[in-house]
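Long-time lurker. I teach an intro course on protein structure, and each term I like to show students one example going from raw sequence to a predicted 3D structure in token notation. This year I'd like something fresh instead of my usual example. Would anyone be willing to generate the tokens for the chain below so I can use it in lecture? Attribution to the forum is fine with me.
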Amino acid sequence: MTSIFLNRNTFKLFLFLFSVSLFSQDDMGVSVIRDLVKPPNLKKGDTIIILSPAGKLSSRNSVDPGIELANHWGLVVFFGNHMLSQDNTFAGTDKERLEDLQKALDNPSIKAIWCARGGYGTVRIIDDLNFKKFLENPKWIIGYSDITVLHNKIHQLGYQTIHGQMPLTLKLNNPEQKPSIVSLHNALFGKKLNYKLPSSKYNREGESTGQLVGGNLSLVYSMLGSDISLNMNGKVLFIEDVGEALYHIDRMMISLKRAGYFEKCKGLIVGDFRIKKNGGNKFGKTLEEIVLESIEGTDFPVVFNFQAGHIDDNRALIFGDYVDLKVTKKKTKINFR
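-- Reply from a regular --
Happy to contribute to a lecture. Here you go:
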């Protein structure tokens, strides 16, 4: 009986310490959300690595724009040993992609991990990664789409990440990409991100502040019920997606609602959605109608048409940082702290 009693006490202590690690208390004893750690800002001469934890690359030339841009910023670029490996749709086997990412996480001289592309595959290796050395020497993780898996994991560990352009999608001579490139530089080198955009008639007015989380809607949805499902208490959710039919989006948004994502949410930012046509089976609702219907009964501000996602003008977002939302009939302001 004594051993059972001790085990129960140990378990209770574990639960207490775990809750303290996620939340602190203010002077009134009310739980408040913990600030997430911002990795060190990059500076000229820093070393970064380009690797692919998911989809395969056709050739080394496909990441040349990323190399050129990083060198222009004064950064030294290394590559994952298996970046150009191929295993069906993946950039190498699970073991090879895991090895590249683990070495990058462990190496204290690497100040940022720039994912070459998305695709699919990060979720296959996420549970085998060891973040012990990353926690000792945190660094920026950069990417979007399938990299949402990494964002969510590292956010859970208490660190900020960057949702932004990847080498495969860079087009340095495309003027439409200039704002996204500037925003990525600002995020990495410690300059504040502030965005102003015209209001959509579908926006929901209001003001709020919260930590920004999220990413690709399909990935956020796929992680429901797992250990990296998002805790939306006090958070602002960003979502984007590509190639999904409207009824798929409706299913995902209703699933987030059923999981309680919007009950304590502080705001919603909807990025670009490239809708897949559904043949002759018309769903009957627009993207905006689907989103607004899924959050009925809430009162937080909602922003549509933010320039981020699978588009050329893919503005950088710092996940885990606080954002101030101010949505009016005429304009929207999104200011990072």
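Some talking points for your students: The chain is about 30% helix and 25% strand. The mean pLDDT is 91.
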